[in-house]
Amino acid sequence: MVTMTNPKITLVYICPVESCGTVYFNYACRFVASYHKFPPEMEHEIIVVSNGGKPSGQTQILFSSIPNAKFIENDNVGLDIGAFQKFARLVDCDLMLCLGASIYFHRKGWLKRLVEAWREKGRGVYGTSCNYEISPHIRPSFVMLDPKLLLAYPHKIRNRKDCLAFESGRWKRKMNFTVWSENLGFPNWMVTWDGIYGIREWDNPDNVFRKGNQSSMLALDHQADDFDSGDFNEKKFLYNISYSSKTQSIAAQYTARLCRRMKCFAGKLSGKAKLKCLI
């Protein structure tokens, strides 16, 4: 049973093996260093998913500095989102925090803040990196939710194309995960250090993803880094494709069309029956 005062939380961090790219060990080093420098300030378990096979010796040594870290090998089918979907079935927790390979922290208390938002708003999907590019979506590199909700999503993630469809694209005229969960009554919340924002408010605060200095985000990743390192024109372009009125208008129209399609058959979704314990 979920308790608002003391939820059981599992962090699932994706750590691709070095054969997937040498950059991933560098990402892992940055993740571990920031985890220690900026602690979560909330009790949790952590699973390190070795995507692509057995973790190398240096990777095992790296994560040994986190006392409760547990390695699990995975085949890398479906990349990071495929792994999140797979391990949502295996974790024993109330809340699962999905962490992409390049995620890192810049201020202590990031998990505490996320759980504070959950206690205030209740059931839903919680992240810190949100935008309207292609369609409204919370980026899955840092997202917390009940794992049963992820299991209920009616599409299995098998490859990169599926990952893109899950995050922000179209999929056989069905919804991406954000829009799908919104329409099942699970709001998608953007959490900053001093605010919580619904799907129509993501551009309201300063210094969020691809806006200002991005310091309001609870965690950063390689896309936040790309924005930070860009020149004025590059930053303007990235901001516009994420938040401009035209982008938001197109996203709103797309969402509205899908919502109309959903209205008459929401009860027929394959995931609906799986959500009886949540709804």
Describe the protein's architecture and organization.
- It is globular, with a radius of gyration of 18 Å.
- Mean pLDDT is 85; it is low at 261-279.
- Strand 10 (188-191) and strand 11 form a beta hairpin.
- It has an 8-stranded mixed β-sheet with strand order 3-2-1-4-9-6-10-11, sandwiched between helices. A two-stranded antiparallel sheet has the order 5-12. A two-stranded antiparallel sheet has the order 7-8.
- 37% of the residues lie in helices and 16% in strands.
- With 279 residues, the chain is an alpha/beta fold.
Number of helices: 10
What series of H and E elements makes up the topology? EHEHEHEEHEEEEHHHEEEHHH
Beta percentage is: 15-25%
- The helix-and-strand class reads alpha/beta
Radius of gyration: 18 Å
Count of β-strands:
12
* pLDDT < 50 stretches: 261-279
- Adjacency order of strands in the biggest sheet: 3-2-1-4-9-6-10-11
The average pLDDT score comes to 85
Helix percent reads 25-40%
Largest sheet: 8 strands, mixed
* CA-CA gap between termini: 14 Å
* Bulk shape: globular
Which short descriptors sum up this protein?
279 residues; alpha/beta; 8-stranded mixed beta sheet; two-stranded antiparallel sheet; 10 helices; 37% helix; globular; disordered C terminus
